[in-house]
Amino acid sequence: MCPEQIIELMHEYLDEDIDQDKEQILREHLQSCNECALIFNELKKTIAFVKSTSHVQAPADFTANVLSRLPKEKKKVWMQRWVKTHPLLAAASLFFILMMGSVFSTWNQDREFSVSKQKNLVVKNNTVIVPKGETVKGNVIVRNGKLKIEGEIQGDVTVINGEKYLASAGHVTGQIEEVNEVFDWIWYHMKKTAQEVVDIFDHPKTE
Amino acid sequence: MEAIVKKRIKQVIKGDQDAYGEIVEIYKNSVYQLCFRMLGNRHEAEDMAQEAFIRAFVNIKSFNQNLKFSTWLFRIATNLCIDRMRKKKPDYYLDADVAGTEGLNMYSQIPSDTPLPEKELESLELQEAVQKEILKLPEKYRSAIVLKYIEELSLNEISEILDLPLGTVKTRIHRGREALRQQLRYV
């Protein structure tokens, strides 16, 4: 009968935890002892068998199932990640929100009647009249009111959220523009801003 | 890969669940495999593997980031499986047969390089027999054998996962190996 120690050496060998001297003893013994050589081969075969079973894969929806069972994530984190993954979109939507906010607030503030100050303009109950035979110099802007043109306007006319009547004798030398809906109004604002920008760049040249 | 995992863990600690999804993707197969070999049943294995990932997530703040995440995760999974095995009724071995056939279904889905039907069937039968014998091992030998030969971990890692001295791990692997040899020698 072989010493128990040999079996121990086999296990040390299989653990890849054996020093050279002991390995030498084991090798010599295995060459001379068929019984131990058989046991050693059986052990190696067993390990190969066990290793051969090692390729089971998790179900396809495993990760999704785990994530769905996690406690709810904080909103803040979700926002942070969204901003991180879509920086351009985030910037654009923030800009859009602010823009819309300011546009609507100005639109709502602008509900009051107003008119550009010019000589010869007559104001009656939210109606601005350019009397017959009179001449108004410069651009006329009327907000939230009516404009009756019986005389002459030397310039552009803009009516915001109102109406204008051009009498047969009335005359406008510039352009006439009526702005009634909010989108018209936004368009008007954009054009005006663009015009101002152009003016800023134009001025130094003309001066 | 450890570096990626460490980065993801930092994001998870901040509460980012998508980052955790990536961690699950990395380890899902090894954790599932560990549970399947320990429990021998596909459904239970999925249950326990999911539970392990959820517990790891919930307790992520207690994870020591200087250690290997996989070691910690495997420890959680192993403990869950051992608890589950202890709670099982004595008719456990009847389950093992069912598990074998389930294993067979899954193996048949894995594409083989050499699609020879006879050889394939032979290897399936062999794998079934091996799985059965692994499931017959006492729980303390089984966990050591599965971690060593199916997860292919080092003895040091196994001793960390099982929270046992290296010597004890070695003894368990030796005994498990010997028991398997006795059962599989004539296969």
Automatic annotation (TrEMBL), chain A:
InterPro entries xrefs: Znf_put (IPR027383)
Transmembrane segments: 88-107
Keywords annotated in UniProt: Membrane, Transmembrane, Transmembrane helix
Protein name per Swiss-Prot or TrEMBL: Anti-sigma-W factor RsiW
Any Pfam family the entry gives: zf-HC2
Putative zinc-finger domain: residues covered: 4-37
From TrEMBL, chain B:
Signal sequence range: none
Residue ranges of coiled coil: none
RNA polymerase sigma factor 70 region 4 type domain span: 128-180
Record-linked SUPFAM superfamilies: Sigma2 domain of RNA polymerase sigma factors, Sigma3 and sigma4 domains of RNA polymerase sigma factors
Keyword set, alphabetical order: Sigma factor, Transcription, Transcription regulation
InterPro entries cross-referenced by the UniProt entry: RNA_pol_sigma-70-like, RNA_pol_sigma-70_dom, RNA_pol_sigma-W_bacilli, RNA_pol_sigma70_r2, RNA_pol_sigma70_r4_t2, RNA_pol_sigma_r2, RNA_pol_sigma_r3/r4-like, WH-like_DNA-bd_sf
Entry keyword Transcription: yes
Domain RNA polymerase sigma-70 region: residue ranges: 24-89
Family designation: Belongs to the sigma-70 factor family. ECF subfamily.
Protein's name in the database: RNA polymerase sigma factor SigW
Organism this protein belongs to: Neobacillus rhizosphaerae
